[in-house]
Amino acid sequence: MGAGASVLSCCRGEFEESDNTGSEYQPLLGDRERQAVAALVKLFENDTRISFYDGEPLRALTVLARSDVHHLQLSAATAFSEISEYDVRAVPQEALAPVLYLLQSAYADVQQGAASALGNLASVSANKRLIVEMGGLELLVRQMLSPNTEAQINSVGCITNLAADEENKLAIARSGALIPLVRLGRSRDLRVQRNATGALLNMTHQAELREKLVAAGAVAVLVDLLHAKDEDTLYYAITALSNIAVDSDGRDALWSAQAKLVTELLQIMQVHKIKVQAQVALTLRNLASDARFQRAIVQSNGLDALLPLLQSSYTALVVAAAACLRNLSIHADNEDPIICAGLLPELMDLVPQADQPELQCHAIATIRNLAANNGSDKQAFIDAGLFDRFRMALESTDAQPQVLCELAAAFSVFALNDQLWRPVVELGMCHLLVRLLRCGHTDTEYNACLAIGSLAGKGHPEAAEELMRLWPRGLREGLARALTLPEYASSNVRPAVLWVLMALLNSRRAAVCKVLRADSQMLDAIESIGVSHVPSLSTSTSASWSLLPSFFATKGKSDEMATSPAIADCKTDVDDDGICGFTPEAQRMRSLAAQIVALVQDTD
C-alpha cells in the first residue's frame, strides 16, 4: 500500500475543485491522465496485492510517466521506486520503458526516483542486460555527471548492479563511465563513495577492464580509499586492489605507490574485522607474485603481521596468511626472515591437517620454496618436525590428490638438498615416494620420479641400496607402468622414469643391469622407446625436462601463484608429407632409452 498511497496522495489534489484564489495554478489533467488516475484509485480500492509490472496498473503508470505534469511524473517514479523495493523480479521490456522514460525527465526528483527503481530491478540477472539493451546505461552515465548527490547515489548504485553481469562490463567501459566512477570514488558523500567503489570492484573482474581502470587513474583513488571509515568501502577498495595486482602491468602501477600501499595494508590487517584481514592477506599474496613486493612486504615487517593470522582459530584467516607466505617464500632473501619470525613451526603444524587441503597445499609449497635454497642451513627445518609432519600427511588415508602432488614436489626439492636428502633415506621415507609413484595422478608421479631420481643420482651407497631394496616392493611396478601403459605415452612421467633408471645405473650399474636383464617386459619397453617415434609430451607439469640439468635437478622454485616460467614444449613435429620428426627434447628421450639398453646389454 506504500506505493499506492504515494500515487494517490500525489494525484488526489488533481481531482479536487480549486477556486484558484491564493493558490498556485494547478495544471489541468488530460482525459487519459484522469482515466489513469481513476483506474489506479479503483484498483487500490478493490485489490491491495496488484502487480504494477503488467496489465492495467502498468498501463496507468505509463500514462502518468509520460505526462507533462510534474506531480504525475513524480507519482509514477515514486511508485516504481517503492514497488521495486518489495517486488523485485524479472520484468518485461514494457515495464522498464516508462522507468527509462522517467530517467530523462526535466525534474531532478523524478530522475532520482527512476534511477532508484532501476537500481532495485538491476539486482535481478535477467533485468541487467535488458536495461543495457534498452539504452539505460547512457542515461545512468548522464545522471552520474549530475551535481545532485541523490542522483549520483542512485545512478552509481544501479551501475554497480549492472556491472555484476559479465557481458555488461565492457559496455559500461565503452559508455564512458570509468572516469566518472573513479572521480566519484573521491566523493565526500559516503554513500556515493561506497557505490562508486563497489562499481570499480565489479569492473576489476576482467583483465581488459583492469587495464582500462589503471589508465583511468583508479589505482591512486583506491589506495587513498584505504583510509575509508566505512567498512564496506574499505573492503571494496582492498578487493579491487587485489584484483588489479593479479596482472603484471597492474603490479607495475601499484609499485609506484608501494610504500604507502604496503604500509596501509599491514596496518589495516592488524586492526580490522576478520573479513577485511583475510582480504588484505590475499591482496598481499597477489602483490607478492612480484619479486619487488616480496621483499617490500617482508622489509615492512609484514611477517610480524602475518604470524597472528597463521595462529588464528578462523580458517579463512589462516588460509589467507598461508597463501601470502607461499608467495613471499619464493624470494631467496626471505628464507631467513621467515624462519627468524617463528613461522616455520606454525607452517609445519598445518601440513598434516587433512581436513583442510587448501591450507595443506599452501603450507607444503611454502616449506618447499624455503628448502630450495641449497646454500643455507636446514637444521631448523628438521628441528621443527619437517619429516614427522610430512610422514603424517603422506600416510593419511584422507590425503587429497592435490596435496599428494605438493608433497611429491616438496620431496623432489628435499632430495636435492645436501642436508635434507639423507633423512629421507635414513628415516625410511623412500617407500612413501614409491607409493606416490603408483598413485595414478601423473603430476604426482612425475614429482615422485624427480625425488627418486635425485636420490639415486646422489651416488651415495645408502641411497642406492635403499632404492634397490624397494625395487621388488613397488619401485619396479611403478616404473614399469609408466613405460608400458599407453596412457603414459604423452606424459612427462615416461622420460622421468628413464632418468630414474639412468641415475640408478650410474650408481649401481651391476645390480640394476641384473634386474633389467631378467625383466624382458621393461627392457623391451625401453628398447621400443629408443627406436620408435616419440609422441607429443604434455607440458601440464610444473617443469619440463629441458629445464632440468643432467638427471633430476629442479631449477629454482616453483609456485602456481607466481608468474609461471616458460615451459619448453616437447612434441613431435609433422612435415607436409605427414612424416614424424623430433624436437630436441624428443630426441633426448629416444637417445636416453637407447643408452640405457646399451649399458644393460654391454655390462658383464
Structural class: mainly alpha
Measured as a percent range, the helix fraction is 55-70%
Number of helices: 36
From the alpha-carbon coordinates, what is the Rg to the nearest angstrom?
34 Å
How many β-strands, per DSSP?
2
Instruction: List the quaternary state of the chains.
Output: single chain
Note the gap between the termini: 100 Å
Q: Low-confidence segments, ≥5 residues, pLDDT <50?
A: 13-26, 533-558, 560-582
Largest sheet properties: 2 strands, antiparallel
Commentary on this structure:
- The chain has 604 residues and is mainly alpha-helical.
- Helix content is 67%, strand content 1%.
- It contains 36 helices and 2 strands.
- It has helices at residues 2-15, 31-46, 55-65, 70-86, 93-102, 108-121, 125-133, 136-144, 149-162, 166-174, 178-184, 190-203, 207-215, 218-224, 231-244, 248-255, 258-271, 274-287, 291-299, 302-310, 315-328, 335-340, 343-350, 357-371, 379-383, 386-395, 401-414, 421-426, 430-437, 442-457, 461-469, 475-484, 493-507, 509-517, 520-531, 584-602, and strands at residues 572-574, 580-582.
- The chain has a two-stranded antiparallel sheet.
- The radius of gyration is 34 Å and the shape is elongated.
- The model is unreliable at 13-26, 533-558 and 560-582 (pLDDT under 50).
